[in-house]
Design a protein that fits this description.
CATH topology of one domain: TTHA1013/TTHA0281-like
Number of strands: 3
Number of helices: 2
CATH class of one domain: Alpha Beta
Strand content: 5-15%
Shape: elongated
Helix content: 25-40%
Radius of gyration: 17 Å
Length: 100
Amino acid sequence: MTTPPGRQTAAPYDQHEQHTAARIGRDHPHWLILWGTHSRLWWAYPRFRAAPGTIISAPTPGELLTRMRHTELATTSPGNPAPPYRAPAARPASPGEKSR
């Protein structure tokens, strides 16, 4: 298959951010985690009973995780326990990955 004239193929956009979103999603399965390639923000949608319209955004993964935890605690009640919290597992840096 050839690329039509005027169109170029490119590498996946924001690959590091996409991998980070996937890792956060694995660590926090009660949330849907997305990286906004246009907004340049991290987004989290609860997969548990939360107030209608609850959507979290943050400029960094750390801030997103903090806001997610605050939301979990705020939605906790006797009939609606917060989802289990798992601290992210430490992982070694991948070859060629910068430490953050």
